[in-house]
Design goal:
The chain is α/β, with parallel strands linked by helices. Helix content is 56%, strand content 12%. Helix 1 crosses helix 8.
Length: 209
């Protein structure tokens, strides 16, 4: 019976560099000989990716907060049970671009959905499953949005007002303060080389520790 793999998630507001640092983490695990999977939310499976398209596409029709919340957890249920858990049970590490902490930050902090409602769905979909470690890439909203705009056309979430993202960031920082053993905050406002070095050092420590 293989030892269960470890579940690491990468979180942060727009433009913090999660995709880049996921690749840094992956290369570090390769160098250390750790078998792993890279995935993302919403998405990660064909069905969940279809739900992602529904969630991110800009549209004229207002999206009710409950609709958005349920779609997030519908994608998560499919992703968790068909991809993440099988990988962990096979002994692989999982690196995931966002998970439920993002729902507490975006739908909770940003949209104002009561945290108790999110927690109820978290329990329903995940049971006791939680990320072992959360790598929080943190940068000011202004800097993050400047980076996001340079990437090209903005999706439905990226088009939100600055105040929305301030609430998202504040929620992430509050959750990090509440769970210091699980959260690892990295200053994403540093040079790319320094951020990458910090992530590689963190991952190495998790493997060897």
């Amino acid at each position: 019976m293989p030892v269960r793999g470890r579940f690491l998630t990468f979180e942060g507001t727009e433009g913090v560099g999660k995709s880049t640092q996921l690749q840094v983490a992956s290369r570090t695990l390769d160098e250390l000989g750790v078998d792993h999977l890279i995935t993302r939310e919403p998405g990660g499976t064909p069905m969940a990716e279809s739900i992602r398209e529904l969630l991110l596409a800009p549209r004229d029709e207002p999206v009710h907060e409950t609709t958005e919340l349920l779609l997030m957890f519908a994608a998560r249920a499919q992703h968790l049970h068909t991809r993440i858990l099988p990988a962990l049970e096979a002994g692989r590490w999982v690196l995931c671009d966002r998970f439920t902490d993002a729902t507490f930050a975006y739908q909770g902090g940003g949209r104002g959905v009561p945290e108790v409602r999110i927690a109820q769905l978290e329990e329903l979909v995940q049971g006791s499953v939680r990320p072992d470690h959360v790598i929080l890439l943190d940068v000011t909203v202004e800097t993050g949005m400047q980076r996001a705009r340079r990437r090209g056309e903005l999706d439905r979430f990226e088009q939100e007002a600055v105040a929305f993202f301030e609430q998202v960031r504040n929620t992430y920082l509050r959750r990090a303060e509440q769970s210091p053993d699980r959260y690892h905050r990295i200053d994403a406002g540093q040079s790319l080389e320094k951020v990458s070095a910090d992530v590689a050092s963190l991952i190495t420590g998790l493997v060897r520790g």
